[in-house]
Amino acid sequence: MTARPSYSGLVALLAIAVLAMAGISIGVGYARLDLGAALSDALAGRQSLSTLVLVELRLPRALLGALVGFSLGMAGAAMQGLLRNPLAEPGILGISSAAAFGAVVAFYSGFAGLFALALPLSGIAGAMLATLLLYGFVGRGAGTMTLILVGVAINSFAGAMTSLALNLAPNPYAALEIVFWLMGSLADRSLTHVWLVLPLMLLGWALLLSSGPALDGLTLGEDTARSLGFDLARLRARLIAGAALSVGSAVAVTGAIGFVGLVVPHILRPFIGHRPGKLLLVSGLGGAILTLAADTALRLLPIRPELKLGVVTALIGAPFLFSLIHRLRREV
């Protein structure tokens, strides 16, 4: 019988894996980079070519991969805990699509060019709108199937509106820019993008992590959770705001990257005794590992132009979703 690692041990292992994957991500690229020399030049303030590659290309890509993956993994675990539905995640419930539509509106209307925070704020607004709609159905005691159908409806509506924006695009180049952005990618991002989304993501993570004990109580049922002193209305508001801030920020800078929030919590749940509160942090770390690994793998593939990250995560996530649905059907 294999011994299960303790919670702190599992967190430490995953954190080390995140750092290792970030290091590998920085080291992998289309041109050879002497990391030691680049780091030495950067610390000394020398503007060499290797320093520019490290600071302007490799480091922002790795940092955004970790931040976006952490946000998606944690938000997926939070949605599954809140809705007590193993199929819940920001993408399936329409949050990611709504955030993407919000960002597309910013692109299409020219709002994104007015000030630096316009794009992430538009993504967050779209995510907030979708989560509030979902919250409205959850608050009315809707069943799981109804909730999923609402998520599908939001997904379809956001996709239809995005298609409409593409259809009405003023020129083919604008449409092409939106299409490539929607596929999701970490390429050509800078440290400006990192500093832009980091405060919003940190706030979203804090809101999600603070909901851990209440999520554990919610597994016993809403009445029991209330009897334990948890305010479920405040819990839902915190989780909705946290998911919208973290996922909306992620989608706003990278485009739609699906399935991370669905796959990672299911892989890690058995290691933490199926406790939703403890799953939040480890899912965030697992999401960072998966996103960094997928982004590194697509750069190693001999395919040019480079595959989009959202395409790679969908190729991983879609078969996993089929296997999960098959397993759930057998358990019913």
**Total helix count?**
14
Class per helix and strand makeup? mainly alpha
Number of strands: 0
Low-confidence stretches: none
Order of helices and strands: HHHHHHHHHHHHHH
Largest sheet: none
Task: State Rg.
Answer: 20 Å
- Beta-strand content estimate: under 5%
Shape: globular
Please tell me the overall pLDDT. Answer: 84
Share of helical residues = over 70%
Q: N-to-C terminal Cα separation, in Å?
A: 28 Å
Task: List its salient traits.
332 residues, mainly alpha
What do you see in this structure?
By secondary structure, this protein is mainly α. It is 75% helix and 0% strand. It contains 14 helices and no strands. Helix 1 packs parallel to helix 13 (276-300), helix 4 runs antiparallel to helix 5 (118-139) and helix 5 runs antiparallel to helix 6. The model has no long low-confidence stretch (mean pLDDT 84).
List the helices and strands and how they pair.
Blueprint lengths: L6 H21 L7 H10 L4 H35 L11 H15 L8 H22 L4 H24 L4 H11 L8 H19 L2 H7 L3 H6 L4 H23 L5 H9 L7 H25 L8 H23 L1
Helix pairs in contact: 1-3, 1-13, 2-3, 3-8, 3-11, 3-12, 3-13, 4-5, 4-6, 4-11, 5-6, 5-11, 8-11, 9-13, 12-13
Summarize the structure.
The protein has helices at residues 7-27, 35-44, 49-83, 95-109, 118-139, 144-167, 172-182, 191-209, 212-218, 222-227, 232-254, 260-268, 276-300, 309-331. It is mainly alpha-helical and 332 residues long.
